[in-house]
Amino acid sequence: MASGRPLLIPSPQGANPAARTETNSAGPIPPAVAKSSSRRSSRSRNADRTPSSSEFSFAAELKASSKATFSVENFGRSDSKPARRYPSKRSDSGRLGSQREISDDEARFVYINDADRTNNPVRFPNNSIRTTKYSILTFLPRNLFEQFHRLAYVYFLVLAGLNQVPQLDVYSPVASVLPLAFVLGVTAVKDAYEDWRRHRSDRNENNRMVSALVDAKFRPKRWKDIRVGEIIRIAANESIPCDMVLLSTSDPTGVAYVQTINLDGESNLKTRYAKQETLSTPPESMSGLIRCEKPNRNIYGFHANIDVDGKRVSLGPSNIILRGCELKNTNWAVGAAVYTGKDTKVMLNSSGAPSKRSRLETHMNRETIFLAISLTALCSVVTILAGLWLHRHRDELNYLPYYRKKNFSDGDNYDYYGIGWQTVFTFMMAVIQFQVMIPIALYISMELVRLGQAFFMIQDKGMRDEKTKSKFQCRALNINEDLGQIKYVFSDKTGTLTENKMEFRCASVHGMDFSGGQDDEENGLFISVNGQIWRPKMSVKTDPELLNVLRGGKGTEKANRARDFFLALATCNTIVPIVIETPDPATKLIDYQGESPDEQALVYAAAAHGFMLMERTSGHIIVNVLGERQRFDVLGLHEFDSDRKRMSVIIGCPDKTVKLFVKGADNSMFGVIERSINLDIIQATETHLHAYSSLGLRTLVIGMRELSRAEFDDWQSAYEKASTTLFGRGGLLRAVAANVECNLHILGASGIEDKLQQGVPEAIESLRQAGIKVWVLTGDKQETAISIGYSCKLLTSEMTQIVINSHSKDYCRKSLEDAIAMTDRLAAMSLGAQNTITGTESQRVPIALIIDGTSLVYILETELEEELFKVATACDVVLCCRVAPLQKAGIVALIKNRTDDMTLAIGDGANDVSMIQMADVGVGISGQEGRQAVMASDFAMGQFRFLVTLLLVHGHWNYQRMAYMILYNFYRNAVFVFMLFWYVLYTAFSLTTAITEWSSVLYSVIYTALPTIVVGILDKDLSRKTLLKYPQLYGSGQREERYNLKLFILTMMDTVWQSLAIFFIPFLAYRHSTIDGSSLGDIWTLAVVILVNIHLALDVFRWNWITHASMWGCIVATAICVIIIDSIPVLPGYWSIYHVMGTGLFWLLLLGITVAGMVPRFAMKAFTEYFMPSDIQIARELEKFGNLNEATASEIPMSTFSQPQQGFI
Description:
The chain is α+β, with helices and mostly antiparallel strands. The strands form seven sheets. Strands 1, 17, 18, 25, 26, 27, 28, 29, 30 and 31 form a ten-stranded mixed β-sheet that branches. Strands 15-38-37-36-16-32-35-34-33 form a nine-stranded mixed β-sheet, sandwiched between helices. A six-stranded antiparallel β-sheet has the order 4-3-5-14-6-12, with no helix packed on it. α11 (441-458) packs antiparallel against α27 (946-985), α12 (544-551) crosses α13 and α28 (997-1007) packs antiparallel against α34. The chain is elongated and about 125 Å long.
């Protein structure tokens, strides 16, 4: 063994991270104690791992002598001097066994400690990163390009240009440009601020400092200045600035512990290793050539080799540390940069920040085109009629009142360009006159409404995480309404659905169930070390009966098996114990760190039952066994792999025996357990496992057997032969593991709960009832994901599971074809059941698709995508395991690009960023996995369960409000335009108007704007309680009942009627009177404002004082403004309002217009709500009258498959 130094170390607090002095260290880097032999170099086994491996377990490459032999006497040594032994027999059976040679065309050549040579002749990217959308040069053109995706902006730009023509000077040039410029400027400022924040984040990241080897000394250097080939040194708790091959570490065996939160979302420590060939060389003397694959997105794979000291050694995923990782529990690590900047795997897996626009806003383009066509039609009618009128009266144009060629005031005639040009000018002037048909003020109103909606979402106490005191965050203000139309939710697992905290629940030991469900009590176990009290950081509930078995009855079969069971839990793992200081100097906590949360839970459980893991070195571990400190030598370890589905460790015990402990999945373990003995115990264990699984617990089976001297020698010889093989190494190592993992005696089984976040199962069920499909995309292994699927009720026992685990494109194609056939068959069975049994969907067979990342490699971005789409959309649940970050985005794109359904992605780690940005709506969980997901998200919250409130309550409200507000704004402006159009028909098509210019300007700003904004922020069609109680109501947004083309057309038909009532009722009443056009224009102004506000009032669901004040206040404000305008002598229409306001006919006309205009709408509204009520209407009636029937009715009979509501807005 290389060192007796324990890996039980205090958490680094005040230590100098740059300190490099280690015990037994003679230089800046601890040299290898023994010379590397060819055998030892061949044991650099980590290079053989494939990307599909789920874990990189603890194991160090120990020093060994080619003459070392097995000796049972060495097993019991307790002094600090290590026994001579072979390296920890750490298997790579889960990885590819041999490295293929990299061709020069496929390779990147990295000369260690020679960046100049590495970057010549091809200069690799520097280490700076850029996540922004704009630069100083591209901001203006790109931002304007994005904004002009709104067709209304293009429309107003054209109108502003037309108004600059002197012959079409309807408005002043400045006035025509100012509204559009204001809207564009406000949006540009907002976008610039958001991008400036990204620039600031990039600048901070690029200017971070790291120690780089310059002129044979480590000097501080900015991250952005690091070049490929340079040697850099990382201190404890520092982030890795680039992808680097590990050369040496503070551990003499070359082990380094890293945290990969930013890559795969996992907070547990993972181990990486430096090759023995590079450990002994000081950095300043290091030289060599790394031939590695070109940059790619696979974060789980790395293919390379290194030529050092005339020897070529292969490198694998366990020899590289990726950018974004953090060095933990290792004082320092030295590596050579191989990928920098945009070539790093984390950056290759990051997609750029997209420009997201809401679905409603996208549909507005459709309605905008329709309105533009309507506007063109109106202008064409006016133009044609004006041309005919000019031709008919061409000889009278000098004297006619609506048009005069001759100016009798000063003798200069007006410009006249002939009938042809005059008709052209008439068309353009008509476009300018009727331009409010497309309301530019709508976009400002939408922004204000979204701001108000965001305020109330942020203040919602129902979405406040009391544990972390974090509020809901609304980071994007332009897609609030999309929350009400979500059809697919793509969720990460770790940290999103779960707390990533495993908890030991129960155990089956020697055929007896110790669930401790009723008699649990918190265990206060502790040990005394040098006068200090050491206790586990986490307490575990224990079963008193099991404790009695362990502490009593020594020597009995039951007690011995129970002790072996917990000894297996304490030793068969890759956990590293770390001592943590507490405020009490006499008390310290032991924190168990490792790659697998399951292992952490099992080790804490072993400690709670008296088997406390105290320290681990490269070749032995110390366990306090029921108060007695014992040393166990780790003679070999075969790590977990997806083929064997188990791991094993060979332990040299203090009593000179050698034991093999094995743990794994039940379907794997029962095949290697000796069934000729203790059959009743095996059957009892199987019964207990079934019970645990039905509770959604994660289960493992534990077995063991003692190895004789001959068996150990045979295993040792086979392992040495397999580990030195150049080709097919992985298969041979798997065979070695399979040969020794046989004829086991069963010890028992464990049940672990992966603690879900509070309310996750209920949240998923509510989303399902709302018609939302929930897909889980996780980087975890398949067994873990399936277990969580059952725990959170995503998967049920009634579901038919389709599992696709293929390792080639042909196998993927065959699996997908079989899956399509199965879904078709099940669909036919379900259809038959509906027709012959109930006629409902109750007999439909639910289907779940489970697919791994390896299969997705061969499916995504190929012709097989379409097949996957057919299978996935036919399934109720999709569970994707072992997926890389970009594959998550690919799955989202699979649905987003092929359907019109809205997608939402939710995650908590940097590995979820691409998925969050790809989805229509991205939600970040502000939990324990850093803030990368939050920074990339549109919305952020503390718990997954808040998604129910966000979608079913606020999403529903936001969609209903915004959909109504958009249609109302179209209606409001269309009524005004049609009223102007009718007037033009009676003024010789001259485009004059009786309404003053100021009233036209103020119509959309003061007269009618405020009420619709208030209603868009505050109105609620249903209460929170009703929306949460009946999730089916969410389907209203999915079916676009509140905003669709048919509803838009009906609304426009209503505007025609109302405009006719507004224009012709006063026109006919005053037809033979002597009042002037300005007085008539004032009546029309007041009538249209009153009518559109009464229209709005009829649709308000919940009144409050703000709504009353805004609505009736605007009517009063309109009257005051009209009076003020008509009281100014210099303005047209001076004193006009006073000519009509004092007569009874004036007030009678306003009343008659309101009644006549609203009759069709009121009749249609009453008819549809009585004879064709929507789900929303039924629920509103239940809210009002539900108490009468609550005792007998348990749910609302929803018309969930109803067509979009037919009616007027």
